[in-house]
Write a structure and sequence with these properties.
It contains 15 helices and 11 strands. The protein has 467 residues and is α/β, with parallel strands linked by helices. It is globular. The N and C termini lie far apart (59 Å).
């Protein structure tokens, strides 16, 4: 029996080496994250399933947040006239190589030699839609057929030298963001770090739609190069860690704007990049206390969604410096996240976005359970879609109308979890979940705090009754 088992393991190891070789040939990059032989069958099955879904797709908007579907609330009439358009800017920094002439994408999936800054001009909805048609689509759109969007054009400011002092191009970007902030009622900046298998246009359009629901807020993306195949996970995510200093510098650059505060949000393996950048930034100033860091960098919420970060590493090494910098550290997690289930198998350690708290020490558990500026939000049982076009359960923050609403409220208003209608889960003081009456509760809460949002005219099309 033992001899037979050893033979199975040996054959599996041989197959794994062959699979790793195939990935290296396909990508032209050595595999930096080894495939563990015990999960060979799981890897092949998952890879084949994922590869079947790698067809080209059109960038699309996020789901309509449930608040925008409530007939008691009227956000649209409060949109200033200069913003009643389907077009808006998204600012970016990218380490991607520029695309070839004629490509649909503006930047390629391969690493560039330079760090580049610019503005992407986004069109939301179908070509030719008016603002009123875009607003009406909030009531009729669904996850099965998401609304399209496009990067109509980009203004590439050019390559940025990686120097200690701020360059002229960086000052140009700050000036553009400040000009945008001067037009807003809520002058904040949101920086987004995406996960892998996302194109430049995907990320820009998605964050453009978030901007539309955030009062046309100033959105900034760090778009790092990643391929569109499932196996790119093994090469692209580890390779992207070389961009952590660039993300750190970008956060420092955004602190030079006139934003009242800067929210940062990351998804999937982009969370590893953001977490490390924040930790580096904090460790750069050991002489400053939390209040001094807050005045210097003005970081509001640090939000980690479906995060592919080792749970223990986050709790032990990353959470303390991040909490020194951010007013709130917020983690959304789901036990039904298939992508992170697979990542956990590969790494033999649970992920922040799909945690197994048994892996934490008593000290780490105490930190997570009692930290006053930490929120862990369990979205496992939230009804509705948890993905639009990727791996099951991994895109809930833009695909689920309840969760998307909570992210937006968290970004736009200084509400504690209970003010956002979340309810405690478990014995920890820091863990929360969505109640069954969340849509009705959050609509009533908004009207209590902002009675001017009460609708006085019929919505563009008939909406569903309050739940």
């Amino acid at each position: 029996m033992r001899g037979g088992g050893s033979g199975v393991v040996l054959r599996s190891q041989v197959k794994v080496k062959g699979l790793q070789k195939m990935v290296e040939v396909q990508t032209g990059t050595p595999v930096e994250r080894p495939i563990r032989s015990g999960w060979y069958a799981v890897w092949v099955s998952a890879a084949l399933a994922a590869l079947a879904g790698c067809a080209a797709h059109q960038p699309h908007m996020m789901v309509t947040p449930v608040l925008y579907r409530d007939p008691r609330l009227d956000f649209i009439s409060r949109v200033p006239s200069q913003f009643r358009t389907t077009e808006l800017p998204v600012y970016y920094e990218t380490t991607r190589a520029p695309a070839k002439p004629g490509d649909a994408e503006h930047y390629s999936s391969t690493p560039g030699q330079e760090l580049r800054l610019g503005t992407a001009h986004i069109r939301l909805g179908e070509p030719g839609w008016t603002f009123d048609q875009l607003a009406a689509s909030d009531w009729t759109s669904n996850v099965a057929k998401p609304r399209p969007g496009a990067v109509e054009r980009i203004e590439d400011l050019g390559p940025v030298p990686r120097e200690q002092t701020m360059s002229g191009l960086e000052r140009q970007l700050v000036a553009r963001i400040d000009a945008r902030l001067a037009t807003l009622r809520n002058p904040m900046v949101v920086l987004y770090i995406p996960g892998y298998r996302r194109t430049f246009n995907d990320v820009a359009v998605m964050m453009g739609s978030f901007s539309a629901y955030l009062g046309r807020g100033a959105m900034v993306t760090f778009s790092w190069p990643t391929g569109q195949n499932f196996w790119n996970y093994l090469t692209d995510c580890p390779r992207a860690e070389r961009y952590v200093p660039d993300i750190q510098r970008l956060i420092e650059l955004l602190s030079e704007t006139k934003a009242q505060y800067i929210n940062v949000i990351a998804h999937s393996c982009g969370s590893q990049l953001l977490a490390q950048a924040l930790a580096r930034l904090r460790n750069l100033h050991p002489e400053l206390d939390r209040a001094q860091l807050a005045r210097r960098y003005r970081i509001g919420n640090a939000i980690f969604v479906a995060s592919d970060v080792e749970l223990k590493t986050f709790a032990r090494d990353l959470m303390p410096p991040i909490m020194d910098l951010a007013s709130q550290t917020v983690v959304y997690y789901s036990r039904e996240d298939t992508a992170l289930w697979f990542s956990s198998l590969l790494a033999s350690a649970s992920r922040l976005g799909r945690p197994n708290v048994a892996e934490l020490s008593a000290t780490e558990l105490e930190r997570v359970a009692t930290a006053p500026r930490f929120q862990g939000i369990n979205v496992t049982d939230v009804r509705g879609a948890h993905e639009m076009s990727g791996i099951e359960g991994h895109g809930y923050w833009y695909a689920n109308e309840w969760i998307a609403s909570d992210v937006l409220v968290l970004l736009r208003f200084p509400f504690a979890p209970e003010q956002r209608c979340l309810v405690p889960t478990g014995r920890a003081n820091t863990l929360w979940k969505f109640p069954d009456d969340y849509p009705d509760c959050i609509a009533k809460r908004m009207l209590e705090i902002y009675p001017e949002l009460r609708r006085t005219a019929a919505p563009p099309v008939a909406g569903s009754p309050p739940r």
